[in-house]
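Retro notes
What went well: the complex prediction finally ran end to end.
Inputs used:
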Amino acid sequence: MAAKQKTKFAILGLLSWKPMSGYDIKKLVDSALSHFWHENYGQIYPTLELLVDEKLASKRDLPSTGKRKRFQYHIPRRGRRAFRDWLEEPIETPVVRNQLQLKFFLSCDFDSDFQAKLIGDYRAQQDAVLQEYRASEAVLRKALDEQAYPGELDELLSMTAKTDASRARQCRVFYLTLRHGIRVIEARLAWCDEVLQCPIE
Amino acid sequence: MAAKQKTKFAILGLLSWKPMSGYDIKKLVDSALSHFWHENYGQIYPTLELLVDEKLASKRDLPSTGKRKRFQYHIPRRGRRAFRDWLEEPIETPVVRNQLQLKFFLSCDFDSDFQAKLIGDYRAQQDAVLQEYRASEAVLRKALDEQAYPGELDELLSMTAKTDASRARQCRVFYLTLRHGIRVIEARLAWCDEVLQCPIE
DNA sequence: TCAGACATGTAAGTCGTTACATGATTCA
DNA sequence: TGAATCATGTAACGACTTACATGTCTGA
């Protein structure tokens, strides 16, 4: 039993911050969690129904002008408790499947140009991601130092933060998860350089 | 079409080194690729059948003393070409789902002790893995420097390497994939320290 | 008026894990 | 003789992706 249900608890956790619609959840994950998480509608909507069935969330109609229904999901104490319990469970060690490493490993009997290109392409792609992360990092660093959240960032934080204090805390974790992404990418880049500098003799 | 079929090409690649049985494949993946790859029997045996159906591999009986059948899979030119084609395809960017980051992110409104424990536990667990990796690294480093492959390592390499030259190359990629694992774990540990050193003010 | 964002959902299919079932061989 | 390892498979389930279907609202 239990096993996965990653989506279930990810959604529950987001709802514990603020009531949201399925669409909100998707938007939030894509904009703020994309460097370490993702969800798609095919999971989100059925999972929301599941949460309602299990009485871990409640569905409320939002007033809508037209005929199109809009819903918002709230999380009652029961759901909050379930979320807390999940948080305290030990994290399962993720099953790794690194395609680059696999290709690198399997191509060792090929000409060394092949491996060099493989690593070179990967390096370039990772470096591009790093530039993006660094840009976000700078914005967040500044916001944390000055305790002011300009434009886009404020919009993002207002999706989840209820109070000023939680806004500051969320900004901090947001920054720190980005730091994690940056460190891991830097490690990958350093590895690429190590490989490229010591080719097959 | 195409899409995934990770298992298919992983197996094809291993077979391109040396003919193997399903059991051999499992053993090899578990012992040498486990820091970046995994497979289970439920995937391996059906995938081997699939490869045979597609004429990318051929199944041969191994002489067995009893009634229990044993098989070995060989890879013909057609399979080798398919593998090469796959190697040259651009690598798909993996979909990340990092449970630790998720929990860390979602728990930001909890007391800071909770986050400290979360990160502390994770750090300890990652550190334990690092120690293992470092031990293997030392063995491989020595083998590479001295071009001698003692005991266990020789056994491992003999599963896949046909010639002395390929043995050396495989030892090198083996070492380098481990280096990757080590660098990534070190990045994670450094991140943990960063988080633990700058708690919520 | 038309593109793009808002908004909710379903169906089909693939991928992957887990548990089970079976039996042989080897070695202490 | 019994445990561990060798060895091959299947069935059921669960997780996840992709594509589709449908319709609204807002602003240029």
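What we learned: Chain A touches chain B through 59 residues (CB under 8 Å).
What to try next: split runs per interface for comparison.
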